[in-house]
Design goal:
Layout (H helix, E strand, L loop, with lengths): L6 H11 L15 H6 L6 H14 L1 H21 L10 H12 L4 H22 L11 H10 L1
Helix pairs in contact: 3-4, 4-5, 4-7, 6-7
C-alpha cells in the first residue's frame, strides 16, 4: 500500500485523478449523447441538463457511483482485516467487477468501462507508483474505487 499523504495532497490527487484532463481516454465516450442529439432528445442547455441529470441520478452514472463505493468498501474491509489485498483477485471485488460488466447496457458500454479501467489502473501505477494488487480488466468504477481506497 502506498504511504499515507496529507489531506491537502489527497485532495490534489483526487482532483487530478478525476479531472477531464487525466489521460485515460474518457473523451472518446459520451454515454450516447450524440445519439440523443441526433434523435432530437437533446436540443439545448435545458434538455442537455435533463439528460445528464437522468444519467447521474437514475442511469449508468448512478450505477458507477454505487459500484465505486462498493469496491472502495470491499478494499477497506479487507485492509482492516489483515492488510493489503493479495496479489490474486479478492472474491468480493471480483463479484463487484463482474456485476459492473453485467450492468453495462451493451457491448460498447462494457468496452468503454473496460478500456477506461485498464487505462486508469495503468496510469495511476505509472504516475503514483500505485499497485492495487489486482489485474485488469477492471471496470472503470471498480478500478476507481480501489485506487481511491489505496
Amino acid at each position: 500500500m502506498a504511504k499515507p499523504i496529507d489531506t491537502i495532497s489527497q485532495t490534489q490527487v483526487l482532483a487530478a485523478l478525476f479531472s477531464p484532463a487525466f489521460p485515460i481516454g474518457a473523451f472518446s465516450y459520451s454515454h450516447g449523447i450524440e445519439a440523443a442529439i441526433a434523435a432530437r432528445d437533446v436540443l439545448d442547455a435545458a434538455t442537455a441538463h435533463d439528460w445528464i441529470e437522468t444519467i447521474l441520478l437514475g442511469g449508468s452514472g448512478r450505477n458507477d457511483a454505487i459500484l465505486m463505493a462498493n469496491a472502495y468498501n470491499a478494499a477497506s474491509l479487507h485492509a482492516t482485516n489483515g492488510g493489503d489485498l493479495p496479489s490474486g483477485r479478492h472474491a468480493e471485488i471480483e463479484a463487484i467487477n463482474e456485476l459492473a460488466f453485467a450492468l453495462s447496457s451493451g457491448a460498447e458500454r462494457a468496452q468503454e468501462s473496460r478500456e477506461l479501467g485498464i487505462n486508469f489502473t495503468r496510469i495511476t501505477a505509472q504516475v503514483y507508483q500505485l499497485d492495487i494488487g489486482l489485474s485488469p480488466p477492471l471496470a472503470y468504477p471498480v478500478a476507481a474505487g480501489l485506487v481511491v481506497r489505496h
